[in-house]
Design a protein that fits this description.
Blueprint: H1 2-23, E1 34-39, H2 44-55, E2 59-64, H3 69-74, E3 85-89, E4 92-96, H4 100-109, E5 115-118, E6 138-142, E7 148-153
Parallel strand pairs: 1-2, 4-5
Antiparallel strand pairs: 1-3, 3-4, 5-6, 6-7
């Protein structure tokens, strides 16, 4: 009888933490390769970037928010690396129009870092395609301690 109560208590605690994580905007039950994207409801390029990720094999969840500043702060995005959307995947933060291949490389290599960012919204980056126009841009690997380095260049 005691074991049944203990099992029920463990399930209830797990449920409560799952609901609290969902309510706070977290991804407590994220699966491998599942990307949660936080974007504003009026941004079309965010949906185009999500489609790019899906074509590359990622499962995508989009959570629209009118104010992304609290999300960026929660996931540790430095102000100078900001873009129009913030995503999380397997414990990493992805800011902006990062190519799927770079996210796959990040997940394969697992560096000690906070995440990847493409600052701004460079033309030609995934989700920002505009004919043959292409801006040069860097994908930045950023860490908790504030260090940053170029992860890839386009």
């Amino acid at each position: 009888m005691r074991w049944r109560w203990l099992g029920a208590a463990v399930l209830a605690i797990g449920f409560v933490f799952g609901v609290v994580g969902w309510w706070a905007g977290g991804t407590p039950t994220a699966k491998a390769g599942e990307v949660t994207i936080y974007s504003s409801p009026w941004c079309g390029c965010c949906g185009a970037w999500a489609e790019h990720l899906e074509r590359s094999g990622f499962t995508v969840q989009i959570r629209e928010r009118e104010d992304l500043d609290p999300i960026k702060a929660r996931y540790g995005v430095p102000g100078e690396l900001g873009s129009c959307h913030t995503a999380v995947v397997e414990g990493y933060t992805i800011e902006g129009h990062v190519p799927a291949a770079d996210i796959q490389r990040l997940l394969a290599e697992r560096p000690a870092a906070k995440g990847l960012a493409v600052p701004g919204m460079p033309l030609g980056s995934p989700g920002m395609e505009s004919g043959s126009q292409r801006d040069r841009y860097d994908v930045i690997l950023f860490s908790e301690d504030g260090t940053q380095r170029i992860f890839a260049s386009y």
